[in-house]
Structure formats: C-alpha cells, structure tokens
C-alpha cells in the first residue's frame, strides 16, 4: 500500500476513427509522463469521441479491440500504467469502457453505466449500459473510474464511494456550451463533498464536426475545493501529486489554477478550434468565402484567419448592380486588415445571362424574390467553381438569427461546407466583432489590431439583393428579434410566454414563430456548424418539417 501517487492527467485532442494516431498520441503522453504511477486520458481516447455509428460497424469494433490490445502490450515497456477509453464487446453488446493497463497486462475494465441520450448525445443508440461499476485496487489504493455522464448523475459516484473508493478519476468527452465550465465546477464540487472523495475530472479538447471540446479539466478535493484547473482549448499534460493524509483520506497536493477564457472569448475560441480541426482533418488546403463588406462574412473570415492563418483564407467580392461603393470599399479594407487574398468577380454578366434565359418564361411577371435569389445563387456557383478548381472549402456565413427565420437563400448563401456562425445569434455576431477588433488573445493566427473596419459593425445589415434593402424591412431589429428567437427556440417557450417576457406585440412574436417553424426545411439542408449554446440547429433541436402545430395560432 502506498501513501503517495503521481497521476498524470493528459488533456488531449482526438481524431475520431484514427485508431493508430490516437494510440500513438497516448503512448507519446505516456513517454512524457515519466515518473507518474498512472496516466489518465479522456473518454474513448483510442477511438475518438463521439464515435457515433462507427460503433455499429463490426470491422471498427474488431480493429478497436486489436488496437487496445497493442496499447496494453505497449505498457510492458517502462513507464506509468495507463487508464484509457475504448470500446469492448461483451456477449455481442458494445460498451464504452475504460481499460487500466500496466506492465503489458490488462488489469481492469470498467463500463460506462449512464449513457447520455439527450441534446447532441445519442449513446443509447450504439452502446449498452454497464452495471454499477466497482472500484479497482491499484497499488493498494481503491480507485473509482466513473466515465463522463456517470459523474453527472448521483448513482455511480455514490455507489463507488459506498464500495470503498478512495478517489474518483473521471475520463470525459464533454462538449463546450456557453457557461458549461461553471456548471461542471459546481456539479463536481458538490459530488466531491457529497461522496467525501477527491475527483480528477479530465476532458478532451478539439473539434469534432459540430462539437467543440474545451478541456478545462479540474481536480477537486473532497472538501469541494478546486485545486487544479487545467487550461481550456489546448492540450496539456499535468503531473498531479496525491497523498494519503493521517486521517487515511486522499488529497491532491498539486495546486495549479489556470484562468479560463471569459465570455465572449470562449465563444470565439470554440469557433476557431472547431473550424481548424474540421478544415485540417478533412484535408482542405484552406477556405474561401463571399466577402460582402457585411458583418457576417467579416466575422467568419476573422475566425478562419485566426484558425488557419491568412494564407489559407480567400475572400471573394462579387458585386451586382445593387452593391454599394461602401460595401466594395469595406470588403477590400476587410481583406487588407486580415491580410488575405481578395478577388473581385462581378456577377452582372451572369445575372444578365440568366435574365435573357428566363425572359420568355418570366414574361409579364414583375421582378421579385426570384431575381433576388438568382444573385445569391450565382455567387454560390462562382464560389463553388473556385472551390472545385482550387480545393478550398466554402465557408458558409449565415448566423442563427437568419437560420431561425429562413432569411437566407437555399442553394445560394446557404451553400458551403461548414459554418462558424450557425449557432450565434446576430447580436452575438456584433459582440464578437467588437471584441475581436479590440483584442487578440494568445494563440490566434490573425492580426493583433483590427480585423474589420468599424463601418462594417456600425452600418445597418443588408442583403443588397434589391435597391435600398435592409434586414429590418423584413424583420424586427436584431436586438428585439434575438430575445424572441431565444425564447421560442432555446427555451421552447410559447408565443404567450415570449410576449409576457419580452413585452413584444403578440402578432410579431406569432409571426416569428411561424417563420421559425416554416424554415425547418431550410435548416435540414444547411451545412454543419459549431454548437455554442444549449439548443443548436442540428442534434440539439430536432423538429418535424411537416408540422401543423403553432402556439401562436
Ligand atoms: N417545406 C418545404 N420543403 C421543401 N421546400 C420548400 C418548403 N417550403 C418552401 N420550399 C421551397 O423553398 C424555396 C424558397 O426558398 P428560397 O429559394 O431560399 O427563397 P425564400 O425563402 O423565399 O427567399 C429567401 C429569403 O432570404 C432573404 N435573404 C436572402 C439572401 C441573403 C439574406 C441575408 O441577409 O443574409 C437574406 C431574402 O431577402 C428572402 O427573404 C421554394 O423553391 C419553395 O418551393
Ligand atoms: N457582394 C457580395 N460579394 C460577395 N459575397 C456576397 C455578396 N453579397 C452577399 N455575399 C455572400 O452571401 C452572404 C449573405 O450575405 P448578405 O449580404 O446577403 O447578408 P448578411 O447576412 O448581412 O451577410 P453579411 O453581413 O456578410 O453581408 C454573405 O455573408 C456573403 O458571404
Ligand atoms: N460524454 C458524455 O457522457 C457527456 C455527457 C455530459 N453530461 C457532458 O456533456 O459533459
């Protein structure tokens, strides 16, 4: 029995499905953790989290088991024991497990019991729930290994405590959401005091499709005090020293508390990390986007430059007859400030060609939305041609306010591979743009000074699809629209409840509800984008397209 343990906490990125690279990264961490007794890595570190329907593929399960076996064998070389997340099939059922390996042997396997099945999570679809897990005696210390959601509910930690666990080491795959770091901290502090056990909470970092993982791992002692706060948004290996006190209870003696990014920097970081990993891991040489001189494309471009570097971002201004001199100038200045390639490709010729092609079928009809949308679609055709020719991914620039009410053209400005603003309401877009124009925190690849001219932030938003068009002609001003949308979408309130909370006219709120529900078909055809809040358009909110229900009818 020992009275001291050194536990290395490896807050790591992962690449879903890349068993070889993930295993190599774990072994690299093990080499760096020399001197530790045990190396802990995040949930499903070997397969990447979330593996989704890969788990339903027998070949993937076989290769995962083989890779886990090789990882266990690799611990025969000198170095710490490893506790790593993998998948184990027992009696034909797949389990999300944590394997403890030392000196070339598998010492212990524990299965996740609580499978999250809400919001973006779908674990019951692919995994079976394990039994209430037992602690394992490692070097004479009874250790419990609750896996992520196991810690969010009471049963597992309290069972482990009752079964004699002396500490809880919890591997996690917990995606970022605004304010979730505070929630985790409160929750785990409460778990620590309620069970009387110190807790190491280890989360992954990096982007995976719509999810961004912030890390922000912690150690909380049994008195509820957070003694370790690891960094957010980056990998980190931390050696933590633990000691059994004279009362027989374990404490983490390491004291190291990093400061986490405050709001709105955390939102911006989530966008940067998610886009960087999406673009790099899907093999694009860079991104391109329509740079209109408006705030959505300016902020999207800034995030792309901060994620990938200016040489990987390409802005294309595509003026029509409705494009103002101000927009042309703002787009050019925007590109100059970001240091990105900027091309001007007028779409007038193509607009005229379409008008000639459609002259006969459109005869006798006044110009309307059809002509407006043709412009957005011709821009899409132009951008996709560049994407096909040069390989850059088209970055979609629509924000959550627009996507909520369907204020975007299907197969037009909605086209693209990924969106960083998809879960950001327009008021958040304004906030982030002002913030980024004033600050450039460490680690971002863009310029230290302004990223867009102030005029882009201060001028009224317009789609410039017809003369003198302003967003506010069709929609309430964004500072009034967004609270309505937040109520209807994020909080699932009825029209009456939103009216009561916001003081808006019932007719306006009912109209917005109608637009939101009607635009579901558009959202189903929208590209993925990083989740920021508790109810993103994607996995979090799954509404029927064909739907007659209205609360404001
Ligand atoms: N339930 C459903 N399932 C499948 N398809 C459905 C559908 N309901 C309509 N449709 C189809 O959808 C089409 C209509 O959608 P769509 O062609 O997009 O056109 P629509 O939504 O009518 O117009 C686009 C709107 O977005 C605004 N906009 C455009 C571009 C940029 C911005 C901006 O500021 O960023 C704003 C523009 O001013 C206009 O109000 C029609 O073809 C209709 O048949
Ligand atoms: N003249 C243009 N040149 C290049 N791209 C354009 C142009 N107009 C629109 N786009 C593209 O279509 C997207 C939709 O923008 P639009 O101007 O219609 O409204 P918006 O939502 O206010 O966006 P933004 O704030 O970027 O202007 C833009 O973000 C941009 O990517
Ligand atoms: N991987 C998991 O079990 C995640 C679920 C958990 N409640 C979280 O978001 O942190």
From TrEMBL:
Keywords tagged on the record: ATP-binding, Ligase, NAD, Nucleotide-binding
Reactions catalysed, as given in the entry: deamido-NAD(+) + L-glutamine + ATP + H2O = L-glutamate + AMP + diphosphate + NAD(+) + H(+)
Functional description taken from the UniProt entry: Catalyzes the ATP-dependent amidation of deamido-NAD to form NAD. Uses L-glutamine as a nitrogen source.
Protein name: Glutamine-dependent NAD(+) synthetase
Family: In the C-terminal section; belongs to the NAD synthetase family.
Residues the record lists as binding ATP: 290-297, 397
Associated pathway: Cofactor biosynthesis; NAD(+) biosynthesis; NAD(+) from deamido-NAD(+) (L-Gln route): step 1/1
Top-rank lineage group of the source organism: Bacteria
E.C. no: 6.3.5.1
The keyword Protein biosynthesis belongs to this UniProt entry's keyword annotation: no
Annotated positions binding L-glutamine: 118, 174, 180
Binding residues for deamido-NAD(+): 373, 402, 522
CDD domains xref list: GAT_Gln-NAD-synth, NAD_synthase
SUPFAM superfamilies xrefs: Adenine nucleotide alpha hydrolases-like, Carbon-nitrogen hydrolase
Record flagged with keyword Ligase: yes
Pfam family, one: CN_hydrolase
Active site: 43, 112, 148
Matching InterPro entries: C-N_Hydrolase (IPR003010), C-N_Hydrolase_sf (IPR036526), Gln-dep_NAD_synthase (IPR014445), NAD/GMP_synthase (IPR022310), NAD_synthase (IPR003694), Rossmann-like_a/b/a_fold (IPR014729)
CN hydrolase domain location: 5-244
HAMAP family to which the protein is assigned, alphabetical: NadE_glutamine_dep
